[in-house]
Structure formats: C-alpha cells, structure tokens
User: Fold these one by one.
Assistant:
Number 1:
Amino acid sequence: MSISLLIAMILASMVTIGRVWLTILFSIVSGWFLAYASIKNRIFENIYVSLIEVFESVPVFSFFPVILIFFVYDIGGSLGVELAVLFLVFTAVVWNIWIGQYQAFKTVPQDLLEVAENYRLKFWGILSKVYIPFSIPRIAANLIPSFADAMFYITVSEVFAVGIHTYQVFGIGTVIANFVASGNYFDALIGVIVIGIFTTVITLLLRDFSKYAVEKYGLDTEITVKKRGRIHFGYTTRLTNSLSYTTKLSKVFPTPVRLRRSVEEEEEKEHRQLWKVSGILTGTIILVLILYGAIRTILSVPPYTWGYLISTIPEDLIAIGVDYLRVAIIAVISLVFAIFVGYYIATHERAEKIVVPIIQAYAALPAPAYFPLLFLVTISFISKIFGPFTNEIYVLFLGFISTFYYVFYSFWMGVKNLPQQYWEIMKNYDLNFLQKLRYIILPGTFPYIIAGMSSTINSAWGGLAIAEYWPNIVQNYNLGVRTGLMKTIDVAIATGNIALASWVSLFFGIIVIIYSIFFTRKLMDLARKKYIAEEGIYLV
Amino acid sequence: MFVFKGVNIAAYDKELIAIVGPSGIGKSTLLRVLGGFVPPKEGEVRLMGKKITRPTPKIALIHQSIATFPWMTALENVKLGLKHRKLPKEEEDKIARKMLELVGLSGFENFYPKQLSGGMRQRIAIARALAAEPIVLLMDEPFSHLDELTAEGLRQEIYQMIFSPETNLRAAVLVSHNLNEVIELSDRIYVLNGSPATVVDVIKIEMERPRDPRDPQFAKYLDELYKSLTPTKKKLNGERKE
C-alpha cells in the first residue's frame, strides 16, 4: 500500500463527496426559490407539490434508463457520464429537501410575516431574513439522511456497464469497484476505511450543525403556527423556527413613520401579479415539457417493439410480485428493529448518545462499497447454513442494511417528539411496555412510521437493484436471484436492451405510484387526521 | 444548586391544598416531586406513611396543558387510567362511563378530543385521573388554558367532582398562580417564595363553599396572599402553627 495510492483514495473520496455536496447544495438553493414561488402562486404550488410527491415515491433506480438515454447517449462523452452520475444522486436527495423547504415556508408563523410586511421587506429581504432562516432547521435535519442516501447511490453510479460498454467517472466508488474486480481486496478495504472516515466525520459535523440550526433558528417560545399545505414528516424536526429573528428585525429596521398607502398598495398588487404570472408560466412549462417528453418517447418506439414489450407484462407482473415480497420482508424486519431498538435508545439517554451517532455514521457508509468484502468474508459460512437460499439471504441482507436506517431514524424521532405529558401519563398509570406501545407509542409515532416506512420501501428497491444481479461480486462469485423486477432491469441494461429496461422501469414506476396513491398516501392522510400527537396537547 | 429547600407540605383527609408562588419558583417541579416523577435530592414523599419513589396511579397528575390522546375517543381516553388494574373489559367500560358521567360528559363517550372544547377535554383528563382510583390528585394549573367562563364553570364543579362519593380520593394538591382560584377552592394554601424557594406562609381558608369572591372575607384572604407573595424577610420552614 503506497502513499500515492492512499492519496489517490483520499482524492477519490473528496471527488465523490464533492459531487454529493454539489447536488445537495443545488437542491437546497433551487428549493428555496421553488418553495417561495409555490407559496406565492396556487397553480404552481399544486403542480410542484404533486410532482414532488409522485417523484418522491419513484425509486431512484427507475430513473436509470432515462439517465442513460438522455445523458449517456444524447449528451455523451465524459461530460454526459458525469452529468448522469450527478443526476442520479440528485434524484435521490432532491425530493425530500424540496418538500421540507416547501413545508417550512408554508409554516412560517403569521406574526413573522406580519413583521416583515410591517417593515416593507422586499423579495430578497423577506426570503433571506424570514423564509430561509426559518427553513434551516428542516434542511439541517434532512441533511444526514440525504447525505447517506446520496452516498449509497453515488458509489454504485460512478461505474456502470451497458452492453459491452463500461462507463465510469473518477471517484471512490470506481476505485473500490476496480480493486474488487482485480481481486485486490486489501486495497479495497483501505478504500472503504478511507471513505468511512470521511462519511463518519461529515455525519458527526452534520449532527452538530443540526443542533446548532435548531438552537439558532428554532422558535424560542410557543407561538401559533398557521399550518397551510400538507404536513410532511420525512426526517422532519419539530415544526418550530426562528422567532429570535423577529426581535433582531425590530432592532435593525426603524418603524416607518407614515405609510404611503396608495403607492404601496399599487406596488404590492404589481408584485403579486408578477408572481402569479411567473408561477403559471413555470407550471405550464413543466407540464408541457413532461408531456412533450412522453409523446416523443412513445412515437420514437417502433410498433413491433411495443408488441414485444407488452408481451413481457405477465413475466413483469410475477417479477414485481416477488420483489414486493422481498421488499415487504425487508420492511417488516426494519420496522421491528426500529421499534425495539429505537424505543430503547430513545428512552435510555446514555445508550442514545452512543448508538445514534454510530447508526448515523454507519448509514452514511455506502453499502455497495463494502458489501463485496462482507460477502467475501461470510460466504462460506452463510452458504453452509442457508444452502440454496444463500443468495436470497444476501439480497435481503443488502436490502436491509441499505434501508433500515430510514424507518429507524423516523421512528426514533417520533418517539423523541412525543409530548412530555404523554411520558408522564404512561408512568403515572403504570402502563407496561406492551400497553405503552399499543396505546401511545405506536399511534403517537404513526405519521413518522409511515414516512419512515415509505422511505425504507423506496430505498429497499435500490438495494435489490444492486443485489439481484451482481456478476463477479468477488472471486468469480455471482450474486443474483432467479426472478425479480430489479434483476430484469439490471439484465436489460447489462445486455444493452434499453427499450426493455425503460419499459419495465416505466411499468414499475406506474405500479409504485399507484401503490403510493392508494396505500401510502391513504395511510398518511389517516395519520394527519387522527395521529398527530402534538394535537393532543391543548394550549390556548 | 437547590430549586427549593426545607419545604414541608402535608395534605390531610378530604383536604384540597394549594401551592402558590411567583412564576418560575418551581411550583410545577414541586408537584412532580410529590408525584414521584422527579426524585428529590434530599427528603422524601410519603403517601399514608409509605415512601413514594416513582410515579404511581395512587397519585394522579392532571396537566396544565390539557393532555388527551387524539386517536382515542373520550371513553378510550378514560379507560387508559384503568389499564393498570387489569379489569375485565365490561368492568373497564362501566367504570369509564361512570367517570365520564361524573365529570358531566355523559353522551360524549364516542367523541374524539378534537371534536370537544378545551373545557370538555380537561374534563376527560380529570375523568381519566379519577378512573385510576387515586388517593391523591395533583393538579398543575388545570384551568390556565381555558377561557375565563369555562374555567369558572369547571372551578365551581371540580370540588364536588373529585370528592364525590363515587371516588376514593382522599386529598388534592392544586398548583396555581391565580389567587382568586386558590382561595375559591383550597382548604389551605402554601405560599412559596425566595431562592431556593421555601414555604413562606401557610394560609388556612375558613369559608363555606361555594365561596363568593365579593365576600369581604374572600378579599381579606386575597390581601393576605398578596402580602405573602411580595418579598419578605419572614421565612417559615414548614407549616405555620395554627
């Protein structure tokens, strides 16, 4: 192991992490403007929020064929591959950040907005002094899981093969994959350690930033938050924010002596009109682009290809059924883990201080990078125990380690956010563990469980996409399954059958969206209607 | 650093005692010490001679911020107070309905808290506490989040509710900063003041119930309370001798 190799690994890690932060920063900055546009214009808001909710429920890997067609083939070259990697990571992190910012903007307390109006803050003033500071704790809370998610997807997307072509960009994912492919496991392990150090340090810094954000920008008193729009529980902190800014504002800006009403009303009207027009325009452009893309794609596929694609539907349905079963197993195991471990650490301060940072740091360590090494160490032992089910166990295990974190984190936060009064009532009436779970903890954390399970299920598809077809994972071992929709997509991409990969991805996307509308969203609506623990505390 | 020191408080049979003091003095913390929720650094809490080391259904707490469970109906909320008794379902149902009737919520059994007013929600919380068959009831400013009319209505009824023959309650402790309220409801008032806080006065209210705030005797007690709450050198470590 030479020093130059170590430096190369450090550089590769920095490049990979740089890509991740580039996409996260782009998501944050664009999210502020989009959230502002959506609160200013109802038409844009409806399109924007609906699109986020749809795209959020589409697993990242179903964007893969789109990425291939648009970036790798249409743009091409190293720029195309680089953009493809960035776009894939972007699709993994952006929805959650955007919806969090939108929700933060929607819940800015009326008092703060009135102060801003009082001092006649213009667009940039109100955005930078009120909306952006108010959204910081929400963004900070989202950064830890978003970073973990981005790391997972970037390490697999830095190198991918389509047919006989292998596309890759420089980064730690590529470096580790190349070491594993050449049987240089020790160097691969060093690579995992290097990226592990980076992700651990960044996760710990993000934890501190999250605490700082809540301390600095969190509301320092109970004030009425006018809730408009849908509450989103994904990785959210409490819906509290920056009252302290009001006092700062009142000190910095002098009270206007006299309001020149007629002129200002006119300005206000023009300002609103501008937002309305630009909102409608942007919303319409987005819809037209989506429609144009869809029609262009449909027309570009010859009829005989359509015939072939449609004939695969029965097989696809079986494959998706099998994969849903795998996802269900992963989700149930993750939920049970979350409930028991999450409850234990949320109620044991010392354990929490140790375990939560470890789990957070572990989640940010990209599973695709270290999984081959784990496979290498355990294969002989696991195959002896599970025999013909060995591959299935590995697939489920990779699904679990790459996804359990989301429901765990969400449930843990739900438990932490239960009102103090509920804990006192549980103690007061001497409820046993199962009674606590049944009557209070599970209903009280229901919205968090649904949000966490939704993310866990979405990420489980990513784990399956990697594990269901992984030729030469180590030492000529092939990890794979007989049937599975993710395998169908993987094989189609690997053999250059982009039409099939796109078709199955589209088919899969539609099923996931239908499932999301009829199942996840229904449960979330129920959670919002009945299971908001904070609403059980009556404060005038 | 002690929040309070040398505090000695006693509640006798069928007695409603009140604890008053300036904001931030530690009234709610003291109530939680009495309920076993916060262990005292020094001293102890005894219920009928038995040391209290942790929360128990025998000492039920009613919160300042009215706490009900939005996913449970009024009846289910009350039943929660009965779970530790492991009763058959029918028995549980019967007692919960009786407690709701006692607090004047008969007919609202299947309503969810969100469908009820703040006053009605607080009645649910009282019914839940009474269903646990407590010996002592701790009330942490139970009317502070209600509008004045609702609070007045509930104040007039609460004494009859908690010391009704239907309950086994032996004593109640009320924490409040509303001086009219404590004179209207209490048998004795402990006044906390200073840092660390101590009991600076104990006032026994000897007026027939219901008490009228326009009664000159009421005004006299009010004056006495105001005097005790203003900074004074007088410190009583314990009860004033009657």
Number 2:
Amino acid sequence: MDFTSLTLADISRSYGRRWALNRVSLRCEAGEIVALLGPNGAGKSTLLSVAAALLTPSAGRVKYGEHDAHATPALRQRIGLVGHDLYLYPELTAAENLLFYGRLHRVPDVVRRVDAALERAHLTSRRDDAVQGFSRGMRQRLTLERALLHDPRLVLLDEPFTGLDDASTSALVERLAELRANGRIVLVATHDLEVIDGRIDRAVMLRDGRLVALPPAGGSLRDRYRRLGSQLT
Amino acid sequence: MTLLETIWLVMRKDLLIEFRSREIVYTTLFFAVSVMLVFSFSFVREGVAVEGAAPGILWVAIAFSGTLALGRAFERERQNETLRGLLMSPAERPALYLGKLGGIMLLLVAVELVTVPLVAFMFQAPLFRYPGLMAALLLTGTLGFAAVGTLFAAMLVRTRSRDVLLPLLLYPITVPVIIAGVRGTAALLQTAPDLPMARAWLSMLVFFDVVFVTLALWTFEAVMTE
C-alpha cells in the first residue's frame, strides 16, 4: 500500500482552551521538500504529530493519497518520523536499536539494511556500543537512520539539524536531496534557515496555530521569513 | 510479522534493557522485602506469626512492588519518547500491549520467586503445601493486576502527576483481584486447607483476567492515539 501525497485539510487541534493548530491546510506531493517554519511554540511539532497520525486532530482530516490516515493503520509502514526526542533506547546498542525498529517495521533483509544504515551514519565502529554513551550528534545521525530504515514514503523531520556538526549537516542535506529524487514526501520543521535555503521546494510558516505560505522569491529564506513574520504581527 | 513475533520482540527488548540496568528488579525487590520486614516487626511475636497475616502481607507486597515496576517500565518509554517510536510502527496495538504486559509479568514473577519463599520463612506460612494451586493463584492474580496496570501506566505516561494517579486509579479497580488472591491464599494456608474454596477464588481470578485483558486490548489503541 502506498501513496503519493499528504493532505492536511482544515486541521485544528486544541490542548484544553489553547488552539495549537487553527484550520491548517497543506498539501505536499511526492518528490517535494516542504519546510515548516515558525517561532517556538507555533505548533510545528503538533502539526508533524498530526501528519504522522500520532495525534488525532480536533477537527479536519489527514489523508495519505486517497486514504484516511486514521482509518488505514497499514500506511504507518510508509511513514518515517524524526521527532524532537530521538526514540532511541539508551541501554541498547546502536545495532540493537535499529534491529528492533527494523523488525517492528517488517523490514526485509533487516541485518544487511542495518549494517548499511550504520555505515551511512558513520557508526559502524560503534555498532555494539550502548547509545547512552553517544554524543547528541551521533544520536541524531542514528535516529535519522532509524526513521529511514523502512524506506518510508512520507518523511517528517522535526529539527533534524540539532546537534549535527558541519560534515553531518552536509550529509543530511545531501540525504534530503536523495529523498526528493527518490520521490519521497519530505516535511521538515526547522530553525536552520540558512542550511535549507535553496534546497527546499517551498516553505510555509506557522504562527499562533495558523499556516501561511512564504513568498517563493524576494531574497533569502531568512529575509522572507522575517518579512512575513513582521507582516503578521 | 505475526502477532506472536511482535509480542516477543517488545518483550525481549524490555527484558534486555532490564538485564542491562537491573533497575526495576532491584528497586522492586528492595521495596517488597522492606514491606515484609516492616510487617514482620508487627505480626511476628516471640518467633510466632499472627495467624492469617501471611496472605495479606504477600499480596500487599506484590501489589505495592508491582505498582513501582509498572511506573518505572513506562517511565523508560517516556524518557526518550520511545513509546511514540513504537506507535509509529505498523505493529498491531494489541501486540504492543501484550509485549509490554509480558515483560512486566516476567519481572513480577522474578520478584515473586524471592518474596514468596521469604513470606513462607518469615511468617511460617506453608505456601508450598499445594505448589500447583499456589502458583496458579499467584500467576492469575499477578496477571489481573498487571493487565490493568499496564493499560493505566501507558495511559498516564504523559501526565505530569502520573506517580500519584497510577495507584489512585489502579487500586480501586484491582481490589477484586487482590481480595481473590488473599482469600484464595488464605484458604490454602489455614490449618485445614479448604481446596474447593481456593479453586473457587482461582476461578474468580481467571474470570477477572479474561475481563481485564479483553478490556485493555479493546481500549489500548484509543488510549494511545491521544
């Protein structure tokens, strides 16, 4: 089962009396990288959780292609999420973490895929070390491999550049381009505007739970983001 | 991947983590032994235990230490949001629940392997007179308690006051299980053991297990989605 688009239609989500998302609509297509920008607390992580079908919206619908996200649990197989937290077990080794998630996602030939993933993360020499001894950057690289191990169609990334050094940041940027070339749908929430500038297809901004598209031209991504931000205040 | 494979995968992961940290087994055992020691000062006079005290002490130790184990087992999943990692997978929700339940059950059984002989020794309770029936009472009682506890611990994992709320929700609902465990054990320990009564309480425990596990399997997905 597969899909080629993500549709968020009139999504609202409240926590008590506070609206984290207010009638947000967004459509992303296969082979597209969409940046989700906005200040802290704007609702970016909530939007990613809703897109991943981890949170049920208070109103609105999430669709993977033509399928309703909550009615088709089998489609979870096609979603990869790098959250703010890393979803790694600190007591387990790098290889054990990937093997566990790989088996849970029914990845075929999982041992070979895990070896390849560890090599991509430059963690082959640390494969049998417990994750609790890893630096933030190493954990971040491992968690990216965890999220991509099962070859998801929809890739949701929440601050994926956090803790990465220059080399790892460049590697991740290249990986994003690869994902786009392979027809993946990539939605990335980030504050690292300079890193993604010129490497994304379009950007949208969340502010106070509302979604606004950034103009496609008119200076750097940072300039456009600032300009839109000041227009909205 | 079949349901059983997923259950085993989750259970094995939990046991591997516990084998490396030994955190739950040590703290739970320490707590259970402390409870029994405190009771022994009150219920053992001049080397003789008060009649009928042992079943209550045994099940209080199991319930209290079980609550501790349940809290810690899910605290681990919360710390790095690994529970979300589990929920992102296409694995069936009932399998995830049963995997967590299986891991907790095995940990509690390991704790009982130490606490039961200790209760037998400290309170001169003939717990091994009918080992089959006693083991069945312990297993079914522990399963009923852990079935509800696993569901509530998972449900409360993201609430701030989960440590307070877990016992508040858990004990009122599992009271029938604890009572059945205590009465069944008491029927076995009395001077003239009442085997039909012990079997009747065992049947009650099996009934509670079926009801609690079914309800938990039914509600786990809805509870976890939020």
Number 3:
Amino acid sequence: MSIVPTARRFAIATGAALALIAELTGCQPTNLYVGSNTIVGLNGAMNADQTAGHLIVGYDRRFAAIVPKSAPVLKDDGSIDQSNLNAHEAMGVLSCSELKVQGIFVTGFTEYLATGDAAREFAKQVADPSAASNNQATTADMTKFFSCAIPHAPKQ
Amino acid sequence: MGISCLWNGLVLALASALIAGCAFDNVGLLASRVTSAEGAWVVDVYSAGAYLHTRADDPGLQVGIGRRSYVFDKRDAQELTPGWHYFTAPLPERASFARDSRTLGLETTFARDDMSLTLGLRATTVMARVSAGDARFYRLTYLPEQPDETMLEIFEVTRGEVACLLCQQPAGLPSQLEQRWP
C-alpha cells in the first residue's frame, strides 16, 4: 500500500477534525501547534473569543496538535487562488513526533515536520512515479523522513 | 502528602517571588545558559520572582521559580556566546523552533492559542509552532535536560531532491546544501 494516500488521509482527517473544533469554539488558530502541557494545581483557560474554557483542579496532562485552517487556498500549480482570497483551508502538514516522558515531564522528543510548500513539494515528488526512476524522492524517502522508527538521519 | 508537598512548594515559590525581584524579557533577576548544539542554539532561562516575557512565541507572566528553554536554529556560529549569563538572557529575536518551560508558582500565558492562568506546577513543551503561511521542513531532537544533545536539521526540497540546509560539518560550521539524505 502506498504511504501517500495514507498520509494524505491522516493530514486531511486531522486538519478537518481540528478545524471543526476550532469552528465550534469560535477560535481560529493561526499557528500549527504541537505540544504537551501538564498541570498540577489549579488551572483556568479560555479561548481567544472567550466562548469556551476550562477549570482544572488537581492534575491534568494533554498532548495536542492544532492544525490551522487559515492557510490560503492554492491552485494546482501551487500559486494562491486569487479568485477567492477570502477562502481558507487547512494548512499542509506532514509530521511525526516521538516523545520520551518521565513522570510529569517530557524529557525529550524528536519532531519530524514539513509544512506548507515544503510539505506539498515533498509529497508531490513522492507521488510522482517518474521520480523514483530518477533517484529522487520516493515513498521510501517518505518513510525515512516521517517514520518515527528511524530516529536520526545517517551522517555522511 | 502530595497536596501538602505541592502547597509547601507553592508557598516557597511565591515567597521567593516576593524576596527575589523581577525580570522583563531579556533582563532582570535571571540567569541563562546558552548551549551550542548541532544546528541549534539552546537558551535556558532560569528566573525567580516575577518574570514578564513578551516574546511573540511565548508571551506571559510568571511569578515563582521556573525555567524556560528555547531552541533556535544556528544561523551564525558566532551569534551567541555559550555558557552562563547573569541578569540577562541572550535570546534571539526570531521565533524559536521549540520551547520547554517549567514553572512552580503562578503563571499566566497570553498567547492566542494558549490563554490561561495556572497556580501550582506547570510543565509545557512546544514541539512545533509554525505560522499557517510558513513552509518549513526540519527534524529536531531536543532533550531539555541535555541541551548539548539537541540536533536540528533543516531541509529543503528542490527539483525532487532533499537537501540539508543546516547540517554541521566536523569543523562545527553549518554548511549550505552539502549534505543530502538519503
């Protein structure tokens, strides 16, 4: 099975789900955000529009990825669609995160990330069957860059 | 016992805040440590007391004791001076690639994606924060307790080839388009 459709489905599903959450809460994130937050004590939070929030007493830990849907709509050639400048879509993201946790702290992580044009260009090359014959980016590259099973790139 | 311990810690943190002093952005009663890592600078900022930080990637107010660590791409090997710095934190203006913060006391955050108030212990690790319009392609390994183990590799895709833009050579200087993977 090709990894590209899987990656696309994952990105689209993730983006759509988070965009829906953002829509429901009335908040439009403008940054891709991948992070962890641990609270021991008292914590109160609210979104920017003050339409949703929470109050935590005790212990809480969250790992979250927020994909903004405020990226401009692009045409097939990668240029911005000038005919509909008010429209926005989910940001293009390829990501893989490895975490090491000890107790309540994150003691280390490796983040593999491609966003925007870089993600589109890489995915395009991976999807291009002629690229493999030219020793260019292939699905193997996709696996190497975004599979968390390989922690570091080999050094030359 | 856990709650009692936390309460004692809180009292200690707030007492230290009252006794200690304050800091604003890069100056004040704080100590910082700059670590030169592979492709990255890691700046750890330790503070006690009130610390108002207005960086775009980490706005907030902290009252208590804490450590805030930032990972920046190493654009210039001479940009920062590794080692300890006192009463100042040599933080580059540009946005960090990653951040790790641990606070005991009171912490408020003012970021659009993180508006909150915490009383107690808060540990936050931001593994990625990229603006919706930005194109980035990188791999970052970061261990907050071992900043010298940090490794940042920035790539670009051109004509179907993946090139590493900020991979270090043995001499310790970044190279441009000299390493490729695979």
Number 4:
Amino acid sequence: MIQQRGGVQLKGDVGQAGDAYEAHADQVADLVVAGRSAEATLDRMAGGGAGGRATQFLHGDLSVPVRPELGDRGASVADGLAALDASRGITRDANMNNARKVEFESKLFAALLRNAALLAPAVHAVSRAVLDYIDRREALAKDSAATTLAMLGGKSNFYGRLVDAAHDDPLFATTLRGVLASGGGSLQNHVLVHHQFWEHIYEKIDWGSGVAQTLVAAAKDPKHLRGQTEITVGDTTVKPFDKSERGRVASTAAEQGGRAHEVFEGGTVPLVPAETGIHGHADGGPAAIDTGNVAQSHTRGIDMWTIDERKAFTQQARLMLDMPIAAGVSGTTADLVQCAMTMGLTGAALHRYCLAVLGFLGSAGAHSFHEIMTVCRAAGVAYTPGDYRGVYPAELEQTADFAALRAAYPDFFGGAAPSSDGG
Amino acid sequence: MADALTCAGGALLVGTDHAVADGRARRPGESVGCDHLVCESCGAEVVALPGVRLVRDLRAADEFTRLRAATALDAEPLLTRAHVAARFRLYLCRCTTDETAGASPAAAIEAGWACAGHPR
C-alpha cells in the first residue's frame, strides 16, 4: 500500500513522451522478432514501454476444434495456424501472435501516446463534461461534488495510474477538479478518471437510481455499447460480449469443467506483474501523478487473463484475420467510449477519443489493436476488421511518427511488404 | 434446495447506502443486496466487506483467501477505510473482486456472480 500525504500533483502536459519509449519499443521488438526473451529489457523499463507489453500475450489451448462458422481451416486451431504459417510465412511470438504485427502495434501505441496532443482536445472535452455532470448531480443526489470527485480516486487498477489511497487526501478532490477543468496532467490520467467515473458513479450509483437518466437526456444502459458490438464470422453474426462468447478463460471457466481462474494456478500471476515507478514509462507518461517517485504496483490485463481459444472472436482473429489478441474483446473500451458518447462526443471528436483509448489501453498492456477497435467500430469508428488502414485521421498520418511507421511497415498502410518481411 | 427462492429480477450488489436482505430473496423492485452469491467461475461463495476498498488489485490466491477470512479489517494492509470507502462494499469470491457504491446487478460481473437461493 502506498500512502500519499502531499496532495496530488500532476506534472507536465500531454504529448511529451520521450524518445526513450520508442527506443525501448524497438529494443523489445527486436528481441521478440529474434525469438529471445525481452524480460530484462522489460524490467529495465519498469512497467513496460509500449513495445514491451505486447510480448507477453497469453494463449490458451490451441488443440480445440475450429468452429464450423470459420469453414475449412483445419481440425484444430493449431492446425489452422500451421496452415496459415505455411502459406504466408508468418513468424509467431511465444503467444502465437503474428510477431511482426505485435511489433507494429507496439510502435503504433507508442506513436499515439507521443502524439497525444492531437487527441487531447477530445479527451479533455469528456473531462469537462464529466465535471459538469458531477456538479449537476450534487443537487439531485446525496453526494457533494467533492465526495463524488473523491470517489474517483480508487485503488490502483490494471493501468495503475491513480495513486493508491490518494483519495483520502483532502486535496485530492480539489486537485482533480482543477485537472478535469483545465486539461492538465497526462492523457492517461484523464482517461482513467473517466473509467472510474463510469464504473463507480454512472453505472453503479446513478443508473439504477435514475439520476443518470435525469442528468443526460440520451442516457443509455451502461452496458449498451457492449451489446451493440458484433462480429461477422462467415454467415454468422456473433456478439463477443455475450457471456457464452467472451473469449476469456475467467468468464468461461464453468463451461470448462469448473476450472479455476488460470491466473492463480501456482498461487501467483504467472507472469509477474510489473512493479512500476510512477514516473518515466510509457503508460504513465511524464505527467503521471506524483507519488514522490515510489514504486506502485501495476497489474496488466495481459497478465490477468487467458484467451479462450474456442470463442468465435478468438478464432476469427487468429485464423481469418491474423490479428494479435491479448485478453479478449475490450470491455474497458466499451465503458470508455460509451462514457464519451454519453458526454456528448460524436464524429471526429469521438474518433480521436477512440484513438486515445487505443494508445492508453494498448500501451498499458491491456489489449491488442483488434480487441479495442472492434468495440470502437460498434461506436461508428471506421475499422475494417483485420485492416490497420483507414483508422488514423490526417493530422496523425502527417506526423513524423506515422511517417516512420509507414516506412517500416508499408504493407500495413496499403503498400507492399518489405522483401525481408517474415510475415 | 428445492424450495429455495432466488432474488427477483436478479441479484444486486449494493454499497452501504443500501441494506443487504438478511437471509431472504430480493423482492420485486427492492434495492437490497443479495447475501448468497456464488461465482460461476471459481465456485466460491461471494463475501461482502462493508465500508472498505482495496488499495490495489489482488494478484495472488492467498490474498483472496486472507481477505475472505479477514475479521480485523482495520489491520488488513490491502484494505482502506478512507472516508469515501465508507460508501462501498467490497465483494470478493476466489477469483474476482468488485467495489460497489449504490446498487448494480451482480450479473454484470464477468466471472458470473448469481444468487444461489434463499434461504441457504
């Protein structure tokens, strides 16, 4: 437990992530492609740079049969992958993802965070709307705005960006109000606050009591976007958030004979969670909340969940789309994007908010590109499943980071693959 | 048990602003918590600890075991009673935790929490 007594300070501004993250992403990606452990490199980055996280995706039992909706792709997922590899020459990482795509996604997430200033206006608009909501609910609910703000300072979570126990500091609510109003702090700070707001205030307190419906004319059930999320597998439409289709072992253990959560086999998380310093790593950015530079635990989604290889979302991603998967379709994305929509974001602003979520969750080791963008697609963002093209607005495409990505991975931008391509 | 009743409209998780129905099923329209929840994923009965929140996510099985058996909550380093925590109930089975202020459906818990019937 980390106690914070000096109030909450947010340093820096958005878009200041340094080249160290990109260099780190490169180092880890090189190791992955070379088939070597990136653990030491990950440790050095203490919490994982954008490149490091993707190296620890977990996979499940690949001997499970291929679902009939996918057509003739082998008797088992392993067979299907082998056939795909033979025809396309794909190199896979230890978690059976296309190593080159994992590498690309790692660098993409880093690029998004480095260019967070282009995405920040949309994120800050949601922050201001959340603050306005909190002020207006004061008159309807029993909670003062200060109490509501204090409730947003929960424990550290998978993303580890709100300091443990900071919420018991009287300065927390005051400081957080200032951050939400002014746009200070990092993009990640804001997005995490949005998630805390959505989960603890909107969903659990205000929806059931009718306060949310009173404050927001277009309020919808907090799980609405999850229900709207669909994939098409052959001729079949599947809702990947349905309990029977969620591609995580933890949610389907009962179907598998009551097997306990795999994370806890052996008593601990199998891949040791990163103990992160709060400063100086990609997911926190240089503007993270100041805890006096003490270590803070950070458990990553990739470490917490095991893919259920039987699910349609998983099999489609692996065998039809050849897209990296990490922890299954992203519920946090659904929460965040629905929060943004509820707070009034539409069109281009919503698109940029989705890319902020992509950078945030991707670099935090929570989810892969496809797991996040599948949900964004349900919100109206252009994403053709399995295709990295067409997702980025022009101002991002024009940055030096995206020029570098385009040069290194032309095939993911509509060009031909480099001749040395391994997949 | 053949004549057990389950919570009408689905079980609720509730913060300390709401009561937990003591040994009985939730009646239609009632905002009371269920005191007999079982997790479909790990099979464990869900334990509720009022007025506390976690200081971080739990990462190991023995942490779940320890908190499920905890009686001296003030002495537990994984818990905090910081002032807004008084509004929350911390729920935990053996694989999942949830903190609730207000009221929310247990069915929303991904691991699969459901009313196992009343009386026990």
